[in-house]
Fold these 3 entries.
Entry 1:
Amino acid sequence: MRNMIRFISLMSLMTLMLSGCTSLSQDVFDTHRKALLLPEDTLGDQASRVVYPEQNWDPDDSLWFYNTAQGSHLLPYNIFLHLEQANSQSLFRASDNMDRLRYLVQKPSRANPDGLPLGWVKERYQGKEYVGLTCAACHTGQVNYQGVAIRIDGGPTLSDMDKLLNELAAALEATTKDPEKFKRLAARLLDKATPEDQQALLDEVKHLEQNLRRYNTANASYADAQPVPYGYGRLDAFGRIYNRVFAHLTPGVENTNPANAPVSYPQLWDTPQHDFVQWNGVGDNEGDGTLSRNVGQAIGVFATLDLQRLPADAGYRSSVNIRNVQRLEIHLEKLWSPSWQELANKNILPPINRELAEKGAAVYTEYQCHTCHALIDRTDPNRRITAHFASLQPLNTDPAMAHNALHYAGKSGYLEGQVSLKPPARVFAAQVSALAAVRDVTEGVIRAAQAEETEQNEGTADHTTWRSSVQIQSTRRLLDFEYVDKTNPQTLMAYKARPLNGIWATAPYLHNGSVANLYELFLPSCSDAEIAAGKVCRANQFTLGSRELDPVKVGLVQRDPQTYPNVFVLDTRLPGNANKGHEYAAGVTPVAVFDEQGQLIKDAEGKVVMRKLPPINDEKRKALVEFLKTL
């Protein structure tokens, strides 16, 4: 144990010293990535300059990531470009409106001539142009500190996609019902506004509105008839991908499940180096697992999809850009997590208290944090990460996401009676699990795209394949400190721990974003009555929307909803939002017991021996937070 403490302390000191000597590949006050800063916004934030931490990407790397299409088709491009807001003549895409929805706004550039928000791009497919979303729309973050905006590549977005899509539907509807609004749209889009052309445009806008309304209704977040809004920085991505696949398998038939388990957008650094990804580890990085995962997310963000397979088809026709999806994953291999210390060295963030951080390193070991959250060198190109999973019991965090991901099912539609494309081969019955349906559809999309590329390149010298330099060997799932059969679906009833480098830039915390800051993460969850009685606990309600960093508790500052009505109040008492669990430092969640050789101790029945540690005091809590800043 003493050796582990010394190792962590030494590693912490080396991080502090080396990060101060790191030579940036670009000026930290970067103007080349085309960030646009607004005056004080409706959520109380303001910044006068933007900076980029050293993450091993130069400006061209970032811009490529921001603007590389993956086959997403949200709306026809020109309609989106000129669409007005529902209750205003201002364009929907206006920077102040997109900033209110917490998408990062950008200046025009060569790859983004219309100045769309970061991660929004023009897509072309079968002779038509669409507006679509790239990986960067959901996986680029920003935190502000004292007038400086810190843009973080691969960080979680704070956007509210659910609000975006509902307001987009309202804008389309208003355009069809307000003659003056429609007249302005027609004037912008039609060279000769003949009655026939106007009617065709009106019919198209109505059709788009109806499709989006159906999507929003299918994905409305309810639990026991109670609405559960996502708010900023959260989305039930699994639920929505499942519903999109089921909708395409059974067009015109109700075949959805409630998308009521919102989770935080995960950070992307170290993703290619993991054996398993996603909050419950459903994404396997072995072999073609990375491609399947990324095809699935492209489907989730409105890729065009046709699941009515013809006999001659190699798979399923879609707009998914397989080559770009592969290239995006490879691009992430060299991405580093952001360093607090590097920004502190440049007087952007406050300095780390080294003495306090050293005490926190000892607490990190004492409370066995390192047994699940391994310490890694964030810059090591050869780093490989074994994900540690903890079963829902005794971890006790909100089970909704893991439960839905494993147990959701629906009508198989076009799949019924077909032999699965994804091994092992089986014939689909009338009902199918959502997970099996998505896996087979992504396999079919990959096969069709690869067959099309082979046909296009036949007889040419272009046989480029994009292969990862990160090789993940045959993977076994590490659950509760023991390797288990990853093909057993019940092992997905768990949540993943990952290294905590860059954790300071990813608030709110826990998989469902139910804890406001790192300081509160080390407090117990409590009832309203306990809080009212004066017990120091995790907050049962807090606000989301501000990007301003709280450098002491390490989270995002709270805004008064009375002053800033656009903030979102997250209520952890609603289904799917529970802030319970992972209460090791609070003396609530038990830890596994190891012997002096680091081996698990089991009882006579073969069960792992567990024990609860005493709650840490406030001094240790602050020290632990300070240590996490160094990672």
Note: Confidence is low (pLDDT under 50) at residues 1-28.
Entry 2:
Amino acid sequence: MRRRSVFRKPSLKASFKARTTGRAKRAVKRAIIPGYGKKGTGFIKNPKRSMYNAVYHRTSIDTLKPIKNKKRTIQGQGSQQSSSSCLWWIFWIVILILCLANIHITLGILLVCGVVWLLVKLFKKHDKITSSNTVNVDQNDVPNTSKLPTAKPVVHEGNLVAGNKSYNINPKILPLLYFTDGQLKNIDSEVGEPSAISINFPVAEGQFQKLNYYPSYSELTPEQRDGFLSWLSTDLSNIPDIGFAFLLLYCLERHILHDEYLEESLKIISKLQSQINNGSFDYYSSTSIGYIFFIHKRLDLLKYVDLNKCDIKLQILLSHRLSADQLIALASKVDFRNQHYIKEYPELFKKALVENLKRNFGSEYFEYELSNIQKLKKEPYMFSNYSLRKGNNRPDLLMPDPLSDRKLCHDIYAELQKAHDQVKGFLEIKRAVESKKDKSKKKIAKPKRINSKTGYPMSTDKQIRNATEQLKLTRKFLKNNQISSYSSRSSQEKMEDLVWNNSAEKMDSADLEYKKGEWDKAEKLWLTCVAINYRAANRLRIMYQKEHRFNDAVQIIDFAVDSPVLRKINNDSYITDFKKKLETAEQKSMKHENEDQSKLSEEDLKKLNRDSDYWFKKIETVKFYV
């Protein structure tokens, strides 16, 4: 039988494997294999081997142990250090004896020990670097609370001294404000928070002008600062300027983004909404409310919100029932175009709609359930606080679009159509029983407004203001979202984004010019969008028919039906709808052939085809966008 050596034979393979086996791999084995890594498991699996190893470990010497223990010596381990030192001396005495006996064996042992020592040193250095990196990562993960704008301001009896005046700020509002200096400082000026107050800026009493569209406290005049701080000292019932409401909304949005003061912020936003009738404020405040409900998941705060003042899509997502007024407001959004009775007989239409709702749902509300919110198309929303968007071109909130649920849109359309048919039938009966003598009492139509420069009809001042406001919103959105497509969206959605980004401003500009009676300018803008936006073709059709350009209307609809770009972007319902429009346009063209005043040239049509070819090549590469 071969005699076993007192010294353990080093195994470089086993040592290397023990040091390189990943922690994740051991964790997986521990989760899958019962008893893996537990003390005593080896004896149960293989008692013979376990007993042998125990005896061998106690009756042999590890030649590499002095090297292993050299780096691990720490205070409080004096006995272990002395034991390792003894083994070290025994090891070198044995080496010396072997040197005297046989020089070749000695050189072999020294070579092996040198290689093992070098490997141990390398592994030790690697472990040290890894440990150091781990510590650095953990330290970086811990937020620097000194820079975060989450500190509550120190309140001294609710008073604030700014400039040379003292203000008794509302105690419910003071903790929500941001200050860049003084005892109430809770944010650094480098952050660029536009609502942050500096007590060193001058204030003065007096009349002030209206604030700019994107107000900032640092850019206000002394009189405007005095007005703002004085307003914050009230219960916010009377708002002198909508810019004050936006300044306060700025700081509330920052708190909402950091998951702070959600309930307090929501109460203030709801109060401001109840006093302000402004589309921009309703949009931005709806973004904050949606962020609370869809990002922070705080549906318990819904009781503080008046959904009637929020964006209509947010109302649909949160209420699960719609009133008759809300259904009427959604008419154009669900493609209910025949709104003659809604405009001419609003009270009668609403009454018919309410009666149908009571008959179908047992109440005055249209009740519904969204099929799957997670699968709905996402629509971008933004905060009004522009400092939150520095270096970030993505929207602050991607909120589900409930009107992308086809079933819901179909059901709303059906309810509106029922009310429409009911009003139509009632009016037909009423006209049948009315005396012919009453025809003289027929309402005289108001004369149309005409643009004196162009001779074309104009819309009302309210419609022109609404079109101007819509154009401002579109330009602002495009300015803050100069992106190609969001990486998380599908190829179809990316194509739709590309088309919208390149036609939205032109379409809104054309609508505004049309309402102002500048039809020639509107025509030029719409013609640049015909190749990628089906709405442009439809608007041109309507305008051409009003100008008695019936053949031009036929050609523009025919182009839209055959356009490969529009076919690729839109669904089949678009093609069906436009084919019906084409038939109607052709019938009108034939009927009014003698009075046709069409003037589209061959060059105009060739340009449309060139635009179509250009955009078709462009959308073919949209899948490579990031």
Note: Residues 12-72+80-141 form one domain.
Entry 3:
Amino acid sequence: MKARPFLAVVLAVALLLLSLAAGGWWLVLQRSPLQLQHQALVPPQAARFVPRQAALSLYLLTDGKQPVGYARAVAPTRERRAAVAAVAGLRDGAFAAAGLDYPGELAPWLGRELGLALLASEPGAAPDGWLLSLRSRDADGARRFLQRFWQTRSLAGTDLQISSYRGMGLISGRGALVGTTPVPIATALINDDLVLIASGRGVLEQALDVSQIDELNQAASPRFRQAVQRLGQGAALLTARPEALGSWLGLPPAFTAPGAVQELVASLRPDGRSLVLDGWLQVGPDVEPKALLPVPAAGAATGAALLEALQAPSDSLALVQQPAAWPALWQPLLAAVLQVPEGSLPAQVAAADAGPLLWSQSRQGWLLGTAADQPDPAVLDGALAAEGLIAAPLPVEGDTSVRVWTRLEAPQGGRRATRAESDQLQASLAGARSSQGRLAWWGQTLAVLQEQRDSRQPPRLRLEQVAALDLPQAPLQWAMGGERARSLLQRWSTWQLLSGLAGHPLAPGVQGLSLGLAAAPDAPPDGGAGVHLKARLGFG
């Protein structure tokens, strides 16, 4: 009997220790930078000071240290130092562009919300001003920062102007880091924990104006709040209007034309060694619903069958639903995916295909997969003949369904051709087709078709990228390897700007890129239609 109290005490102590261990582990997880992967997305408080017409706004819902800690936690051991340097360099360079020294001026007090907005002095014009919002971890950090900030610039000879606007104290002058050109800067302190820094007094006054009128600021916008709720998770929040979609995000002119795309609201979150962008693109009310690429139910099964049947290697892989029905608004994107000359065999197949089309590009050439009856090869013969292509059957061992298209050309050579040789023509292969059950495969060469037929090694990395998008019904699912992704990003002006801020090229760390595009299930509160956009950028 005496043993029972002793065992009860031991059990109680064990349970207490387990509870303490679980609580400590929970606190560690809550403070871990890996929590950025699952962080809930909430409307930023600084959005109250950002006009709804802002060309671009970006809110980082963390402090300046967590992204660096995350890069250190997920990067391979041999690449850890480079990953940390890249993220820290990008952070420091971005603040330096605004005349701020992150390690010396911001790191000791900066809290878990950073915001940047690009503003235009006139509606629809290119952005010519910026607004930076910084939240403090404590009540005194923001105030001490502003005191030191202006004291340092005053000692450097900057003339300061102190005034009041809408009950807020404003300080304006010209500031810069040592060795850089001074630029106009104005600051305000809101509720002792939010610092607003703007590229001039006029920009700051505009921010204070819209904070007083819900119909003008971003935080009270029904469209903005619905998008945040729908996205659910994210470590950063991005909004962009037409004037920024073209110049900053690289969208074709068709997207930024009046009445086309109105706004993009997107979240960014890390996922392992990938950065995921998940966004909603609102299209103007004048754009017809059919411009949003509806996907027929019958196409999903064939598309899945094409992905499952693919066996050839792939550097760039895309599954496109109804390529023949793609509207003019999205044609530039389709052309960027396929990258084939107009009038060529793959271009003609895509233009006539009313079902799903699988596009794959490798070092050996292009490969297309379609339903066996989409399109009928006989339908293409007339258009291809106009391009100088001649169709003919070609029996191949083990496959009697092969059909080839050739072009007759004069012989080319370094030496001068004889009269007999000049009367001869050579046939060059433009493409071939082979059917396998319910599917048909079109290849740039016979070797490509043979590899698709005989190989048993599917492009697992590309297929995993497509699956990770989790958009099986999407009109476009596109995945590419590191080489193609780096080539694409390095031509993007915003990527070049980010590399400049980081102080070294960012492209070498890119290992893959995937993109999905689908129609939104419901309309925004203020009308129009929406498009769901998802992208994953892989590193390491």
Note: The chain has 18 helices and 20 strands.
